[in-house]
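Hi P.,

Sorry for the delay on this. The queue was packed all week, but I finally got your sequence through. Input first:
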Amino acid sequence: MSPLSGGAALTEPQLTRRLADLGIGEGGVLLAHASLRSLGKVEGGAATVLHALRRALGPDGTLVVPAFTSDNSDTSAAHRERVRGLSDETRTAFRERMPPFDPATTPSTGMGILAETTRLHPESLRSAHPQTSFAALGPHAALVTDDHRPDCHLGEKSPLARLYELRAQILLLGVGFNRCTAFHLGEYRVDSPPHRSYRCVVRLAGRRQWWEYDDVALDDSDFATLGAEFERATLGSAVRTGTVGAARCRLVSLVDAVDHARGWFPEHRAIGP
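Then the structure:
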């Protein structure tokens, strides 16, 4: 019988057991993308889900979440949507009020309640990239989050590359492959990836200022298609599926996902300058 039958809420032990059944094991490293709404009722909400994930990983396991911030950039799609239809004067005033990124206090944008709950945990560490930071809990948290270069969103000098080295798993809890951030590392690993300019508000030497930099042009518009083809190509060897509460879930090998993406992009995108 489903734990949601009769309106019952999922408990922490139930969640931990189902996460373990999915394949999350003790001592692992896990990058989690989650829609908690998809789970249905959970006793204790996001805090319970976080506790269950950490219990499934055990004391030697490390949990990582994206803590991205589009609110401090005027080159992000989220910002362009926010100022759509505003007058030039109002848009300029809005831009002048945008606060600089602070890794200690800036909330993530659009990453979900689990990501924010993890970021706010007193033991959480966060990488310092002003737009694509990650937060982590566990023994490998410092290794994952340290040395995230500010001009490298999701490439070799980012937590994704460290997660690749650690052979992490990806949990897609109630979300699809369109949310699979790890595919971006594949964008960096093709020959001559296209680049673009990014701009965001930072604090340097105690002063708020705009900073512009060049990096790989990130594009997640085809990730759902990429993920479906990846899942078919690996015939279940790199993707485990299951249900946690009311949520359809996938547990994915990050190494296999990145390697597949690296080979897929040149065949399905126009790569190069």
